[in-house]
Design goal:
alpha/beta; Beta-Lactamase; Rossmann fold; Helicase, Ruva Protein, domain 3; 4 domains; five-stranded antiparallel beta sheet; five-stranded parallel beta sheet; 21 helices; disordered C terminus
């Protein structure tokens, strides 16, 4: 077989798509001998640049970022490494030792362009991230649709609350739900839990105001056998233990005694709980949601609630609007509860077309709970199939009261004064302050004050009403 000339060998190697190069090992230095055209195309280093040049010089010049030849000499086997070059390309460099006896005298290597592969990997990664994003958005949409079947609303205020609750469910930060009694704080707490990855784990609800002060510590943290007189022989896990892995909902947190607030703070900070009479700490993996209808910030100022506990609980505050502030939801809620209680009590009641208007004008101090109770009462107690305004309790149909026969039988002056008093009283009730009510009625402040004194009326304070 005829031997190939150096020109023929060069042509053969130049036809290769992979870069090929040869390094000479001389006195612990690495001198470039030869490279094919593909090597130059991939790395930007020509045969002329490489030939006779020390690789250490190329590193100093910034043309090569690293040298694998030393490792090849040390390990006496093939070594591969990714190298980035000035031309913007990345190559997988593989060098193999050539021995003379037991000594490495040359290194033959290849360079494979992986720039496109890296781009494909990055693109694949981006596509996977987008896919995860779209998947999450789809899941959120499914959750929101499922929520609309359980939580009845159309107002933008409740829409914001729902969206925030869904976002919060993705993390385990403490949440503080605030709002008047009856707005549905427990519903939002359940929503956060059911939208989270821990939805299959326990959801434990604790009414802090319903547990006797002397029992609250043992109820929350549990106790060991013989911890106190009357304790169960086998001991008892606390509610925090029972909620471990899931969510604990501390409703009416403002009712918690100050001495227990210190212990609760320690549990939240350390995520560990000690049973009464126990010495071994129990680690917790838990989401904490608290709720209150009180002004905790004012309670902090009054030294009735610990400031450090307040900030621990209110990492993410969610304020749930009162029903009077989202009146567009009242009609939806009315028909939702009508359907529910018709099915529950095996009834077939329906609303007269004018029933909803006075309900939309009502102040709803008891919020959604008050509305729900009213609709159930109407479904159960109304003898007629059609529920009309006349079936409403008097306080829900104030306009009817104003024009009742008793009033119309009075002298005109008394009727006018009665009507004026009723209008001013309702305005004060609705707008809370005399200034706001006067503005809405088109009265000056002195005139408003004079009429309030005449009718013995006071500003309507925003009291929390517990149902």
């Amino acid at each position: 077989m005829d031997k190939l000339s150096s020109t023929e060998l060069q042509a053969i190697f130049d036809a290769c798509s992979e870069g090929v190069f040869v390094i000479d090992v001389i006195d612990h230095d690495f001198i470039g001998l030869w490279a094919n055209q593909a090597f130059e195309k991939i790395t930007g280093l020509s045969h002329e640049f490489l030939s006779g040049r020390s690789l250490h010089e190329a590193v100093k010049e910034g043309r090569i970022s690293d040298i694998i030849s030393g490792k090849i000499i040390e390990e006496k086997q093939a070594v591969s490494k990714l190298q980035a070059y000035r031309n913007g390309k990345t190559a997988l460099i593989t060098g193999r030792p050539i021995f003379k006896g037991n000594e490495v005298v040359k290194i033959v290597g290849t360079a494979r362009d992986v720039t496109e592969i890296n781009k494909l990997v990055e693109e694949l990664k981006r596509n996977q991230e987008l896919s995860e994003q779209y998947k999450q958005e789809l899941e959120d949409l499914k959750v929101k649709e499922a929520i609309k079947n359980k939580i009845v609303y159309s107002s933008s205020k409740m829409e914001k609350v729902i969206e925030l609750a869904i976002r919060v469910s993705k993390v385990k930060s403490s949440v503080l739900l605030s709002g008047e009694s009856g707005v549905g704080k427990d519903v939002i707490a359940n929503l956060i839990h059911k939208s989270s990855s821990q939805k299959e784990k326990p959801f434990v609800e604790v009414n802090c105001g319903a547990i006797p002060k002397e029992l609250i510590e043992s109820e929350l943290f549990g106790y060991e056998s013989g911890a106190f007189t009357g304790a169960k022989r086998e001991g008892k896990p606390g509610l925090f233990e029972l909620a471990n892995g899931g969510t604990i909902f501390l409703d009416e947190i403002g009712e918690m005694p100050l001495n227990m607030q210190v212990k609760l703070l320690r549990v939240i900070q350390n995520l560990k709980v000690h049973r009464i009479g126990g010495t071994k700490p129990i680690s917790l993996d838990i989401r904490i949601i608290a709720a209150t209808n009180k002004d905790l910030e004012q309670m902090v100022i009054n030294k009735e609630f610990r400031e450090d506990l307040y900030y621990r609980l209110s990492v993410i505050p969610i304020d749930i609007p009162s029903l009077r502030d989202r009146k567009e939801d009242i009609s939806l809620l009315c028909y939702h509860f009508l359907k529910y209680y018709n099915e529950k009590h095996n009834k077939d009641k329906y609303f007269h077309y004018n029933l909803i208007e006075p309900l939309e004008n009502h102040d709803w101090p008891g919020n959604v709970r008050e509305l729900q109770n009213l609709i159930e009462r109407l479904v159960v107690l109304t003898e007629e199939q059609c529920v009309k305004q006349e079936h409403l309790p008097l306080k829900y149909r104030e306009s009817d009261v104003l024009l009742s026969d008793k009033i119309l039988d009075k002298p005109l002056k008394e009727i006018v004064e009665s009507l004026e008093k009723e209008v001013i009283m309702n305005s004060l009730k609705k707008y809370r302050t005399a200034v706001s009510a006067a503005k809405k009625l088109g009265l000056s402040q002195p005139t408003m004050s004079r009429k309030m004194n005449y009718y013995n009326l006071k500003e309507h304070k925003n009291k929390k009403i517990q149902l």
